Amino acid sequence: MKIDHAFALGKVYSRKQVRSPSWIEKIARKFFGVERRTAFDVWSNFEACGQIDRTCKLGPDAFCLSEKKRVTLAKNVICRGVLRCEFFGEGEILVGEDAYIGDDVIVSSSVRVSIGARTLIAQGVEIFDNDTHPLDPKLRWQDYQFILGKTKEKPDVPCAPVTIEEDCWIGSGAFVGKGVRIGAGSVVAARSVVTHDVPPLTLVAGNPARTIRSIGG
């Protein structure tokens, strides 16, 4: 049974699997609109966006956006999600060794998002170091017009770096907002909304996320 979307055990592409598309694949795409992404497509996309260690593995739906090559994936990272360095900032995304980024994860950076070694980011997590749009409604509308290409002036968008230290676990569907630091070894429960720093070795849950208890001895 073939499963592409299956969390940690789903299909991934290693660098060794990369090959140029065959003539049949090229014809299928040109004349029949076949959109299936191959190992070549996925790896070409990521390597155009930054420094991707050759030991990494990338999911079929993984996607990277960074015009200035400001994404770094260290050794043995598995990435199945979307990494975006936004056009309205000088964002960078740094992912440490052996980290896991699950299906349907979105990481958006206009300053810096750092994910530590051995940290697990479960499916559907959203990590934003920015507010995406201004809070003021007039500025928000102006921002939307800028996105649509109807104006050349973009309002400032609030942003602050996000740091998730090593050995953390961010549960499915959680949201981590701008300016947050999550300490080493901590756990964010599923569907939680993290708007403030989390101490090391701490379990947090809720909206907004609150301390539940310490982890370990």
What does this structure look like?
With 217 residues, this protein is α/β, with parallel strands linked by helices. The chain has a single domain (55-214), classed as UDP N-Acetylglucosamine Acyltransferase, domain 1 (3 Solenoid). It is built from three helices and 21 strands. The strands form three sheets. A nine-stranded mixed beta sheet has the order 1-3-6-9-12-15-18-20-21, with helices on one face. A hairpin with a 4-residue loop joins strand 20 (202-205) and strand 21. The longest helix is centred in the middle third of the chain and has 11 residues, at 137-147. It starts with 12 loop residues before the first strand and ends with a strand.
Keywords:
alpha/beta; UDP N-Acetylglucosamine Acyltransferase, domain 1; 6-stranded parallel β-sheet; 9-stranded mixed β-sheet; globular; 217 residues; 3 helices
N-to-C span: 43 Å
Q: Please give the largest β-sheet.
A: 9 strands, mixed
Total DSSP E strands: 21
Q: Estimate nothing, just give the exact number of structural domains.
A: 1
Average pLDDT, rounded to a whole number, is 90
Query: Multimeric state of these chains?
Result: single chain
Low-confidence stretches: none
Order of helices and strands: EHHEEEEEEEEEEEEHEEEEEEEE
Strand order of the largest sheet: 1-3-6-9-12-15-18-20-21
- SS content category: alpha/beta
CATH fold topology: UDP N-Acetylglucosamine Acyltransferase, domain 1
- Shape, please? globular
Number of helices: 3
